[in-house]
Amino acid sequence: MEVLKPKIGFSAATFLVVSVIIGSGVFKKLAPMSQELGSPLLVILCWVVAGVISLAGALSTAEMVSMFPNSGGEYFYFQKVYGRFFSFMYGWASFTVIKTASIAALSYIFAQSLTSLFSLPIIGNSISFLGIAIEQALFIKLLASFLIIVLTLLNYRGAQFATRLSMVLTYLMLTCIVAFIAIGFGSSQGSITNLTESSHLPDAPVLHGFTFLKALFVASLGAFWGYEGWNGIAYIGEEIKNPKRNLPLALGIGTLIVMAAYVLLNIVFVYTLPIDYFIQLTPNKIAAVEVAGKLSGHIGMVLVASLIVVTTLNATNSTILTSARMMYAMARDKMFFYKAASVHPKYNTPDVALFIQAFWAIALVFSGSFDQLTDMLVFASFIFYGSTALGVIILRVKHPEYERKYKVIGYPFVPGLFLLFCAALFIITIFNKPYEAIWGLSLIATGFPVYWWLNRK
Questions:
Q1: Are 317 and 310 in contact (CB under 8 A)?
Q2: Cα–Cα–Cα angle for 359, 364, 368, rounded to 5 degrees
Q3: CB-hemisphere CA count at 13 Å for 146?
Q4: Which contacts (CB < 8 Å, 24+ apart) does range 117-125 have?
Q5: Which residues pair with 240 in a beta bridge?
Q6: Number of separate domains in the chain
Q7: Burial level of 4, CB count in 10 A (0-12/13-18/19+)?
Q8: What is the domain-level CATH number for residue 75?
Q9: Low-confidence ranges of the chain (pLDDT < 50)
Q10: According to the model, what pLDDT value does residue 233 have?
């Protein structure tokens, strides 16, 4: 059987973590988070809390991947903890909801930013069936689908080229983010008052007790979309050089870099414009672009729209690269369509898995809006992120003899607190976002008959 070969070093792995995470969330999600919280300080707090929780999840995942560096990430080590069925359900959920919806959402924002940058036509209608409006923003969806096809073809040609592209785009992206933060803090346009004053709108949310916790959790869905993807590097464990050392380091350092960038960016946003501006922002506008317009006029808006094009292009490319490896690993174990185990004889890439992933991601592009896709995938992903943290605890108890090149800091409190948060997020989302929760659970549930069919012999 052909296998994928180690070819990605530590620096490339760290940049992959950063490039998978930084996409559209930090630029786009400020408006819905402001509508839920009505306070700039609470918005910043939400990004800090989401970053700390994501770091706890990344550190817990790092212990797992230090023990089991293999293509497939959670799919592989879930087999060691929970058995084949649960492992398959995670892989199926990633294929139907988590990773493919992430690709769809990122490519959607890429297309949306490109159309605003070049004033391209927006065609389509809002006619929907069961909440699905296929022809809504049709041109944007077609452009997003074209991006998925192009990046899939690039990844088909080889992981080394795709990682080099990711490194170049990540350098460019981080340089632009640092420049934006410096310009924001150095500008006379902002005001400390904007950072401290809550909303003055008549319908502003009044938060106290359970209402406060509920609003914080709902707003966290937006923040967690910003941090989504920190576990993606685990999917290419076989292709990382010295994986037991480099994988945990790349996960921890990459997540910290992203957390610092996100918190500083959001401080610049709410320092520049009052919270009421973001609350009233229309869905077709992007918060970061509006802030750039305030700081530097039309030129600033164009530059930030270009930055979003680069970040979403980069994150889409990195997610396509990493996620297809899980389908390859599943097929290799006869737990997915068997042709997905194919490795291209020349390019050494999981060629069929890449194209299956692209087909379903394009289907999801046409299934819903950006916010529907992101809320659905965050809800679904935290079911399994919590399972990873629980798995760390289970293996510490049942198999203390396993070699662990890295042990999660603050055990058992770090994985324990992360597990409790995942459970709370799951329950609150069911009550506050029932449509997204039902669609996410329904797509995951389609795995039951598929599992039976694959194991019928």
A1: no
A2: 160
A3: 9
A4: 117/302, 117/305, 117/306, 117/309
A5: 8
A6: 1
A7: buried
A8: 1.20.1740.10
A9: 1, 128-132
A10: 64
